[in-house]
Design a protein that fits this description.
The complex is a heterodimer of chains A (302) and B (389). Helices cover 80% and strands 1% of the residues of chain A. Chain A is an all-alpha fold. Chain A has one domain (3-227). A two-stranded antiparallel ribbon of chain A has the order 1-2. With 389 residues, chain B is an alpha/beta fold. Chain B has 2 domains: 2-146 and 281-354, 3-Layer(aba) Sandwich (Rossmann fold); 148-274 and 360-377, Rossmann fold, CATH 3.40.50. Helices cover 44% and strands 20% of the residues of chain B. Chain B has 12 helices and 17 strands. Chain B has helices at 2-20, 37-56, 80-93, 105-117, 148-161, 175-190, 209-218, 229-242, 258-264, 285-298, 306-324, 328-337, and strands spanning 24-30, 60-62, 65-67, 69-75, 98-99, 122-123, 140-141, 166-172, 194-201, 222-226, 248-251, 272-274, 339-342, 345-350, 353-354, 361-365, 368-373. Chain B starts with a helix and ends in a 16-residue tail after the last strand. Classes of the chains: A mainly alpha (302), B alpha/beta (389).
């Protein structure tokens, strides 16, 4: 897809979403907000993990850290400014931890990111305990629509980032790392720098999303905001969506969020079982994800 | 004539059936999966017991009309964000007539914004934090009296009465225990009790033996273990193993639950804990009936904390609806301005708080839980904890 074409499609989709708060009730806005949140988180994950092959199982750390930044700024900065601060803070966090983390590969990296997320969670729990805080209430924050528009902007931004990284020299370098890191290095790619940059880039948007979403519940507790389920869900969506480009996370998020919503609303008693069975069936039947399946259909039709 | 009578009878039956077919829809979110899943079970059991009892008695009295009760509930995955979404759905999409509360402080705080926005009154239950007092009064109320500040004062008074002059405190880093710690430290000091050890441990701790050895070496008169249920088990096992033989041992969260009795049996006797309900109170006649009905329905004893609180919140709603019907404004006024008779004694709200129930300390004795402090509330004298067997 050419850049003008992509920009037009992105603008159209964003405009369609932007109309939702005017047309729908709070419940539908909430579902759409969830959808946008997962799109933004998974797009960011794709920049690092799908492009370089370094699978992060710890993206909840950026979501939680962003939320924590929001908590610390709450009351002293306006909402949007706190969201930006949160993005900067998580980007910095990724730069600091990325350098040592990205020296290990494969399953070791996966476990390391997971461990890192747990470590940061307990550091925050300790800080909060030392400060004498027991969960924080955030009253007087933005309304649902305001949060919705911020997350919409973040989802659009993350899609634009994935699109442009994938088509840049930088993105080509990242994919070269995925295919063969040694070969990439011999070709003159500064692999260490590329990886750390990709890590930081994939951390900024999740931090901002976390900052916005904590205002949705108006309550901060580290165990909730650093929940490893967030990391697992991101990876599930990426696998369901497939590929290392913009459409994958969008397909994956639509599929998982809408399916979950439908099952949850209609079969509250057994929806977890249904969801589990469907996910297993999906991974077995469509291993290259929705995006991969659509691409192969297109190829088959010439 | 006979035909006419039959027709009238049929018409009457039809109208009664039509009325009976219009149930009252009550919505809530349930923590079926996730962090709170195990602890939240008894809340769900109490809600369902209440619904079955009400329906068996001919339905819920809605300002004079009997209507069957029907639940609409969804799994919130112990996730506050999900709970917010569920309450939005219950109110705007399922259009429920009434709401019951979700489980735990964090979910109560999370839904406070939604119910405020829709002015939908909810009687809370399983939440106790001084932060709740910051909530705007009007659409949410809390029947519990286990607020950490008052609880700490009452506990300090009990310890002083038992001649305790030194104590060791170990605390889980989760919010509720931390909050209790922050209030009990000054309360002990004020009561002239020296704190010889004060340490925290992480929520996912796997072994407490090293910490408990430190406690043993500090030789305090009393041990205060500010636990959550999972680590309360570790405390009991560790304390028994190293022979921590203090006669005053407080275990904050854990001993109230039925599973705790199943693991430790008589070994939990003499443990002091938090709680303001016991089936042993003679002046709460329905307390024993509730315990028996719960046992008959679920083949397990109710815990002494969440199960009665959940039931109390349903009783309050039931009595308020009998007077006010389903109109939200009238319901809000009724909940705010009425004294309710519950299995936990009378309940009367001022602001968001129940002012009719004093704060109490309990103790496990003979496999059940008794209130042991303050003296005018107690169902049994506090005993010295027997040696571990």
């Amino acid at each position: 897809m050419s850049p003008p074409c992509f920009a037009a499609l992105l603008a159209l989709s964003a405009a369609a979403f932007a109309g939702i708060p005017f047309l729908a009730g709070d419940y539908a806005i909430g579902v759409a907000l969830n959808l946008l949140m997962w799109i933004a988180l998974t797009q960011s994950w794709v920049v690092l993990s799908a492009m370089t092959g370094y699978v992060s199982l710890g993206h909840a750390v950026f979501f939680g850290a962003g939320a924590y930044a929001m908590v610390l700024c709450f009351g002293s900065l306006p909402f949007w400014a706190s969201v930006i601060v949160a993005g900067g803070a998580t980007g910095l966090l990724a730069l600091v931890v990325g350098y040592p983390c990205l020296r290990v590969r494969g399953p070791y990296f996966v476990i390391l990111t997971f461990g890192l997320a747990e470590l940061v969670k307990f550091v925050v729990i300790n800080i909060e305990a030392a400060l004498g805080q027991f969960g924080r209430l955030l009253f007087g924050g933005p309304g649902l629509a305001e949060i919705f528009y911020v997350v919409l902007a973040l989802a659009a931004a993350s899609a634009a980032i994935t699109y442009s990284v994938r088509r840049s020299r930088f993105g080509a370098g990242l994919r070269a790392i995925r295919e063969n890191e040694e070969a990439a290095e011999t070709l003159g790619i500064d692999v260490a720098r590329y990886k750390v940059l990709a890590f930081a880039l994939s951390a900024v948007v999740p931090g901002m999303v976390g900052a916005a979403m904590v205002m949705r519940t108006t309550y901060f507790e580290p165990l909730d905001l650093f929940n490893p389920i967030t990391s697992f869900t991101i990876v599930s969506i990426a696998i369901i969506g497939g590929g290392d480009d913009v459409p994958g996370p969008v397909y994956g998020a639509f599929f998982l969020v809408l399916l979950q919503e439908m099952l949850w609303a209609n079969w509250p008693e057994i929806y977890m079982i249904l969801l589990g069975a469907l996910l297993v069936a999906f991974v077995l039947g469509v291993p290259d994800g929705i995006h991969g399946r659509i691409a192969s259909w297109r190829r088959a039709r010439g | 004539m006979k035909k006419l009578l039959t027709a009238i009878a049929a018409a009457l039956a039809g109208s009664i059936a039509a009325e009976a077919a219009e149930p009252v829809k009550i919505g809530f979110s349930e923590s079926k999966t996730g962090l709170f899943a195990q602890a939240a079970t008894s809340q769900y059991q109490s809600y369902n017991l209440w619904r079955e009892q009400v329906n068996a008695a001919g339905g819920l009295d809605v300002a004079g009309t009997r209507r069957m009760v029907e639940f609409v509930s969804y799994d919130d995955q112990s996730n506050p964000g999900k709970a917010v979404q569920i309450y939005e759905k219950l109110i705007t999409d399922d259009k429920v007539d009434l709401l019951l509360a979700p489980w735990g402080t964090s979910l109560h705080l999370a839904i406070a914004g939604v119910i405020e926005r829709y002015k939908f009154p909810v009687v809370g239950n399983t939440a106790a934090s001084v932060q709740l007092r910051k909530l705007k009064a009007g659409n949410i109320w809390f029947p519990t009296s286990l607020f950490p500040d008052r609880q700490s004062e009452v506990l300090a008074a009990l310890l002083k009465d038992r001649g305790v002059s030194s104590a060791a405190l170990v605390t889980n880093q989760l919010p509720y225990t931390q909050e209790n710690k922050s209030f009990v430290v000054p309360a002990l000091k004020k009561a002239g009790i020296e704190l010889v050890l004060n340490e925290d441990y992480p929520p996912d701790v796997k072994d407490l033996t090293a910490l408990l050895n430190k406690v043993k070496n500090a030789k305090p008169d009393a041990v205060l273990a500010y636990t959550y249920p999972a680590d309360a088990v570790l405390y009991m096992k560790g304390a028994r193993e190293i022979g921590l033989d203090q006669q005053t041992q407080v275990v904050l969260l854990g001993p109230q639950y039925d599973f705790f009795g199943k693991i430790f049996g008589p070994a939990r006797n003499g443990i002091l804990t938090m709680g303001h309900w016991t089936p042993a109170r003679k002046d709460w006649p329905s307390a024993r009936a509730f315990a028996d009905a719960f046992k008959a329905r679920w083949k397990t004893d109710p815990d002494f904390l969440d199960a009665p609180l959940a039931y109390v919140s349903a009783e309050i709603l039931q009595q308020a609806v009998a007077r006010a019907g389903l109109d939200k404004d009238r319901l809000r006024e009724t909940v705010a301005g009425t004294t309710f008779a519950t299995i936990n004694g009378p309940v009367r709200f001022e602001g968001v708080m129940n002012v009719a129930l004093p704060t109490m300390i309990s103790q496990i004795q003979g496999g059940t839980q008794h209130i042991v402090w303050p003296p005018r509330e107690r169902t049994a004298e506090a005993i010295a904890k027997p040696a571990w067997k």
